[in-house]
Design goal:
The structure is a homodimer. Chain A is an alpha/beta fold and about 325 residues long. Chain A folds into 2 domains: about 20-210, HUPs (Rossmann fold); about 225-320, Pantoate--beta-alanine Ligase, Chain: A,domain 2. Chain A contains 11 helices and 10 strands. Chain A has helices at about 25-35, 45-60, 75-85, 115-125, 135, 155-160, 165-180, 190-200, 230-235, 240-255, 260-270, and strands at about 40-45, 65-70, 90-95, 130, 145-150, 180-185, 210, 275-285, 300-305, 310-320. In chain A, the strands form 2 sheets. Chain A has a 6-stranded parallel beta sheet with strand order 1-4-3-2-6-7, with helices on both faces. In chain A, strands 8-9-10 form a 3-stranded antiparallel beta sheet. The longest helix of chain A is centred in the middle third of the chain and has 16 residues, at about 165-180. The interface between A and B is medium-sized, with 31 and 31 residues.
Chain lengths: ~325, ~325
């Protein structure tokens, strides 16, 4: 659920004016959606999604849910496939959430390719794509927000103020619409995963949140929709993020426990790459995301680095 | 869900350490809770409540829910009875929510009488009292909050900053635990009702929120747990709140449309009562709670007045 930049147009998809349809018609739609199980369904309004969910619940079907902003990659697909193993039915939402973008982050340039997403989802066994409009999700006069204190003011929260409030709000909404039994997030967005888990626990949402490992390119670069905006040279340089993480891990395995020394080494490693500009490098507790001075137990090494104009993030968990 | 003051002790009720119980045992508990339908059940942990709700949902039972802070009066009972007519099963929560009290509002003095509440609930046909502990609702390191912007900075939100954030957070939590089909609130807390409805709509909660009319004493005083703290003289004086509201209504019915003139008349009426001290008198739009200068359509006349040390609120809706 992170911001990316690319000059692509929003695909035009016919949206049913579901609010104008009678409940009976909605139910008929939902029946069709549910019965033709060989076909992946695309549901593009909240009322239709709610009706379908109600029917599935009545049938006792379990729902696995993966919220995405689309422009899918192997990382997403690994979530879909795992959800498919755990639950009767996999729902994937594709929604570029405006309220998690800062005023300086250009949501209009966020990459979109619905047709491609549709094909990838189908190939991964997705049952339903939920593809609501912005107007449906945030009608005029929208006013309610969910936020998690404390965990949101570190790491990416510093360079992206308000970002996580937007994430928790949209995820709470999507959870209420899709009412999943299990929800899947990627470890690449490590802070987001911790925050969502905290929200689910604190607000007593009856959802099992699974966080799955990072899927990487051959040179170790974490999969991200943003990677396509790297020039060939930048693409090569981008491998430095993971390289610095594995070097840090080796240092810890060799006995180093002082985080300052480890982050200094990571800084020096990254600074050798001309196109790289560090946003942050942090070693934090995996639970409360607070800075750790001396490494013990389980820690998260997380970083954000600009490669050219593209901001990339990555992380690893190390246990000592 | 408002603050009241009275020097009473928290009743001691044996609480099961449900988190330590096995899931099987929880399910057995829940079965007992559900099957003995002639008896009202008292459920005092979140896991037990969740297990019971899951079972009821499987059985296709509809749930009516009334969140309260206990110390019940006729106003509450009217909600219970209406819920009983609409749904298969009525759940009432009794929880004095610490996070909706300001630092100057003494939660420890909030009136409590669980035995009395239990009897009143039983007599009103309540099926389940949900009576969680503070530690169960807000465990150490609690961090997540729900808030509604815009509607919370007027009326009671001014003299009770943070109050409504506490209300929306606890109601969101209770909704997630009890998962009601219908939820019932009193019109006496008019601003609270508008805010809850907005939260439910904005966050796509699949709950039908009903707001029921104010239940009044013979002299018009709105029922409130706080009324018992009025001295005999203050109790007489307290009738001035409703009296000023009906006078305002008469003035409007007679053709007056300028809110300034109406509120001035109300001020003068109330100021004649020696024990009364006005907190606010407002005439606002019933939807967005914004001040109205010239009355048209449907408006809410709301006021908060201290009678001695006791802060009372009341309101009426007037259509022109």
């Amino acid at each position: 659920m992170r911001g990316r930049k690319a000059p692509e147009a929003i695909p035009k998809v016919a949206r049913n004016a579901a609010t104008k349809q009678s409940k009976k018609r909605l139910l008929r739609f939902a029946r069709n959606d549910a019965l033709e199980n060989d076909n992946m369904k695309i549901i593009d309004t909240i009322p239709r999604m709610s009706t379908l969910v109600k029917m599935l619940k009545k049938e006792g079907k379990s729902i696995g849910f993966v919220p995405t902003m689309g422009y899918l990659h192997e990382g997403h697909l690994s979530l879909f496939k795992t959800a498919k193993k755990h639950t009767d039915l996999v729902v994937v939402s594709i929604f570029v959430n405006p309220i998690q973008f800062g005023p300086k982050e250009d949501i209009d340039k966020y990459p979109r390719d619905f047709k491609r997403d549709e094909e990838l989802s189908r190939s991964a066994g997705v049952d339903v794509i939920f593809y609501p409009s912005e107007k449906d999700m945030y009608p005029e006069n929208y006013k309610t927000f969910v936020f998690v204190e404390g965990l949101t003011e570190t790491l990416c929260g510093i360079s992206r103020p308000g970002h996580f409030k937007g994430v928790t709000t949209v995820v709470a909404k999507l959870f209420n619409i899709v009412r999943p039994d299990m929800a899947y997030f990627g470890q690449k967005d490590a802070q987001q995963a911790v925050i969502i888990k905290k929200m689910v626990k604190d607000l007593n949402m009856d959802i099992d949140v699974k966080v799955l490992g990072i899927v990487r390119e051959k040179d170790g670069l974490a999969m991200s929709s943003r990677n396509v905006y790297l020039s060939p040279d930048e693409r090569k340089d981008a491998a430095i993020l993971y390289k610095s993480l594995t070097k840090a891990e080796s240092l810890i395995k060799a006995g180093e426990r002082e985080t300052k020394k480890i982050t200094k080494m990571m800084e020096e490693t990254i600074q050798k790459t001309p196109t790289a500009k560090i946003d942050y490098i942090s070693i934090v507790d995996t639970g409360n995301l607070k800075d750790v001075n001396v490494i013990s137990g389980e820690i998260l090494i997380a970083l954000a680095v600009f490669i050219g104009k593209t901001r990339l993030i990555d992380n690893i968990i190390v246990k000592v």
